[in-house]
Amino acid sequence: SSIGGAAKRVFDLRDLAAAEVPVEVPHFELDEDPAFWMDRNVQVLVRLRPISAAESTAYGQKRCLIQDSSKTLSWTGHPETMFTFDHVACETISQEKLFRVVGLPMVENCMSGYNGCLFAYGQTGSGKTYTMMGELSKDGNELSNDSGLTPRIFEYLFARIKEEEERRREDKLKYICKCSFLEIYNEQITDLLEPSSTNLQIREDIKKGVYVENLMECYVSSVKDVMLLLLQGVANRKMAATNMNSESSRSHSVFTCVIESHWERDSMTHLRFGRLNLVDLAGSERQKSSGAEGDRLKEAANINRSLSTLGLVIMTLVDVANGKSRHVPYRDSRLTFLLQDSLGGNSKTTIVANISPSICSSNETLSTLKFAQRAKLIQNNAKVNEDASGDVMALQRQIEELKDQLTCLRKQQNAPGPPSFLLLNSGSDREYNTLAEDHQSSCDLSLLKQKVSHLEDVLVGSLRREKLAELDIRKLEAEIKHLNRLVLT
Ligand code: ADP
Ligand code: MG
């Protein structure tokens, strides 16, 4: 079964031979560069798709682009313009190769606790869905040549999880993955895994960050699990589009997986998590104002709202990267509000800009190339999401020990010691030291101060973990409720 109108076979050179004007398109192999993400947080790749049958019928093999290398291409309109990107994937680059360049490093990043985001941008028909999803198979066992980045990412992710858990068995390393799938259409968020949940709201929480309220989250532990969610979501996306009498190309879809790992070392539990967002954007073509009335007009404005805000956010971020102090209008659209971490924030982000080489969409292609060029200038600040906490018993033991030391020190000082709040809050260092030096125990005191502050960190982490566990329980309860409902219907 092919999803999103994915081609039944990949680009075939025989198509060219059969075309009226045979054209030899050079192939440029892509570089797999494992060091790329070590010091960079934003990557931009431009992907060309083969000229389609319809384009060929209308304009033959006439192109608006000439590719010069695996990183550069020229737009041959007026004025002729050369562009350089991290990668330019030519028409003959396979889905597997694209995965190895873009998807694989993203999985590694998320497994080590970075947030990751992958956007597919481009006009309708340029290959966004082919790139992100491609062909989806029901069993998830065998991917085909046309399977896109998402199925390949999860096939690789679960293989790597197995490998890592085995390699670090002594640490009791465990990974947990949970997924959600939503659509933004007309500035309204619909849960693609629970399509009766429409018009969901975005909330912001100091601990949780930005999240969608009441969004279904499903635990997954195999490609098959993910494939079922994808198929379900894609079917619901189509259905929603049909009901609203529109095409799904007007909506944005966001598939999210939170990859959490925990392990034990020195009687401490360590926790890392990375959020991976896979985003298939609405078609970037400008909405024709003629003929757009009523609902259509509103829809056009709203679709423009998320996409135009995305453009605006990126432009503002470029200013910010150049040292200007600017307000970034994340909150002006659902898409940018939800994905603010992925844009200029805590994330390693890849933008795949899809284009057609055919002359028939020359202007749209130029505007996509300009968008991609701007996006390259964004500066993100990705950091590992990490947390360490001891178990409650170990913490209590440490607290008892510290209390003993404190009593001991106070006795040595033979005077009323510094009030305990001074030890616990950050009070000025000099104050401690003068007090302590008087009694020849400055080392002890500063050591104690360090220990207390470390213990505070550990406690904060521990409480946070508890909160997370609570959240998980609530989600599981919601899932059980949902399953019960399914069983009853
Ligand atoms: P979009 O999601 O941007 O609207 P699609 O991904 O649906 O576009 O692609 C439009 C058509 O082009 C589909 O039939 C798809 O299979 C085909 N296509 C896109 N990219 C490629 C590619 N790289 N190789 C072969 N066919 C492609
Ligand atoms: Mg699409």
Automatic annotation (TrEMBL):
InterPro entries: KIF15/KIN-12, Kinesin_motor_CS, Kinesin_motor_dom, Kinesin_motor_dom_sf, P-loop_NTPase. GO terms for molecular function: ATP binding; microtubule binding; microtubule motor activity. It comes from the Eukaryota. Residues 385-412 form a coiled coil. One of its GO terms (cellular component) is microtubule. ATP binds at residues 122-129. This is Kinesin-like protein. It comes from Aegilops tauschii subsp. strangulata (Goatgrass).
